């Protein structure tokens, strides 16, 4: 009987280890699928994104990645006509600065409330996922409380329970995706004028995205504007 118990226990342990290996392989497969999806997205020419209703969100040429070294040598700008995106190799985020915006960058020790308008494209699903530019959310843009603490920028969604934005309503979290915070080191946070507020486009891998993107391993493409709110 003792020998039978040992055999059964050994069989169960082997089965548990096998399941664990399969889970690990499954995550690796998902990451590889994501990598291929991002590569294919970057290579699309022309890059045209439309909603299910036929609204054109973006119609542009093939993305041209540049290194962070080149980006910094160009005074932290990207050539929109050439459709340049800087790749932050340590995170896998790609960023295009369409407009640097009015005003100034967030200073050390400074805190601002920032209004954002955005749309979020699921690259794996090849479809619009969420947006606060749709009619329902027009009265409720995303509001970020942003702080610069000795060069480290942090942000959280400001939630009142009455006019919450699409991101909070979709994902139920006040945590701002890491990918959304990256541009805040490079754009200006001012008010709207004839030059327009800061506008960026981002390719955000799952590890830098929402909790949902992280757990389900999918990348997203974002277009986001940043505007300082009145004090």
């Amino acid at each position: 009987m003792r020998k039978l118990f040992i055999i059964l226990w050994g069989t169960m342990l082997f089965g548990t280890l096998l399941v664990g290996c399969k889970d690990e392989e499954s995550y690796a497969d998902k990451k590889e699928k994501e990598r291929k999806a991002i590569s294919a997205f970057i290579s699309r020419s022309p890059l045209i994104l439309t909603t299910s209703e036929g609204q054109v969100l973006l119609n542009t040429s093939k993305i041209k990645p540049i290194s962070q070294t080149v980006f910094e040598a160009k005074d932290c700008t990207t050539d929109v006509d050439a459709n340049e995106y800087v790749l932050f190799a340590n995170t896998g985020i790609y960023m295009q600065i369409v407009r640097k915006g009015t005003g100034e960058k967030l200073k050390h020790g400074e805190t601002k409330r920032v209004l954002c308008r955005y749309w979020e494209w699921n690259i794996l699903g090849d479809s619009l996922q969420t947006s606060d530019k749709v009619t329902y959310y027009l009265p409720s843009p995303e509001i970020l409380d942003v702080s610069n603490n000795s060069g480290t920028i942090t942000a959280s969604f400001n939630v009142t329970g009455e006019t919450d934005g699409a991101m909070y309503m979709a994902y139920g979290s006040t945590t701002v995706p890491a990918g959304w915070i990256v541009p805040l080191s490079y754009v200006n946070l001012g008010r709207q004028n004839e030059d327009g507020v800061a506008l960026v486009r981002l390719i955000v891998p799952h590890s830098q995205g929402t909790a949902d993107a992280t757990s389900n391993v999918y990348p997203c493409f974002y277009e986001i504007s940043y505007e300082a709110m009145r004090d």
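Residues 1-14 have pLDDT under 50 and may be disordered. The longest helix spans residues 2-43.
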